[in-house]
Structures are given as structure tokens and as C-alpha cells.
Amino acid sequence: MLPKLSKNMASLRNVMNNALDDSLPLLQDLRALQEGTETISVDMYEEGNNVIVKAAIPGIKPEDLDIEVRDNLLIISGEVKKENDRQEKDYHLQERSYGRFKRYVYLPDEVKAEKAEADYQNGILTLTLPIAQSSNRKKIFVKSNITPANTAPMKTAPENTTPAK
Fold it and tell me: Half-sphere exposure of residue 71, counting CA atoms within 13 Å on the CB side?
């Protein structure tokens, strides 16, 4: 009976991990921190028909990056490897981060991942993700029940009534 319970617990753990993988990016970032991985800072904005994502990842080689889009979730992961040219005892100050990182970001629109472009220069990863034409995004206009007839007239300053000389 104990082996079956252990197997069920492992199965439950896998189900929970998979559910967490599909949940909020914040929870995934917290999970990454718990696992000892770093997170990275990103900026995201729209430019024309593209979503642009810029991530600061200094010191990484492009071949050490892994970028994936699952539905509307962007996952950027990789590893910044420590330089082996110096020994620990030689350092007076060591502040740069090394190791694995993983960042989950929800995209504002559905994108065409197969047409995405990635560029890495001067420590900045720039992703250009074309927005899919089938995006269900709609602008919602706000109506107001206030009409000019319902507003009070503005008070104006009294005019100077003294005749000019």
C-alpha cells in the first residue's frame, strides 16, 4: 500500500507543478526564485503591428538563451555562466549575477510566434513579435450621461463697464 501512495503523491506533485506552469507568471517567477534561479527585467510595448519585448540580460551568449511562446505566455530562460579566469580570493567586489534565470510574461495579444525575431546586442535581448490578425482585442468607448444641458453654466468674471476715455 505504501508504494502506491508514494506513486500517487508523485503524480499529484506533477499535476500541481503542471498547473503552476500554466498559472500566473508572478507565481512562476516566485517558483523560479525558490528553485534558486534569477529573474530578469523586461519592458514590453506595442509598435505598429508588433509587440516589442526588451530584456536586460548582460553577459549571456545567444546560444545560452531559450525563448518560447505558449498561447499568450512568453517564457525567456537561460544561464549566465561565471567566468573561470579569476579565483574567488582575488575579488575585492563581486556584484554581477550568474546562474540560471527564467521569466514568464503574459503577452497583451495573440502573436505569430513562427514569425518572431530575436536580436541580442549590448546585453539587451529585443524580441519583435507580430500581432496575429485574429486578435480579439476591441476598443471600448466610455459613455457619459452628462450632456451640455445637464451641466451648470460656467461663471465668468464681470466685464469692465467703465467707458473708455
Answer: 5
Mind listing the domains of the chain with CATH numbers?
2-86+94-133 (2.60.40.790)
User: Which three cell numbers mark 102?
Assistant: 527564467
- For β-strands 65-70 and 73-80, DSSP reports them as antiparallel
Within the chain, which residues score under 50 in pLDDT? 1-2, 36
- The model's pLDDT over 61-90, given as tens digits with 9 standing for 90+, comes to 899 999 999 888 999 999 888 776 666 667
- Backbone dihedral angles phi then psi of residue 148, each to the nearest 5 degrees: -55, -30
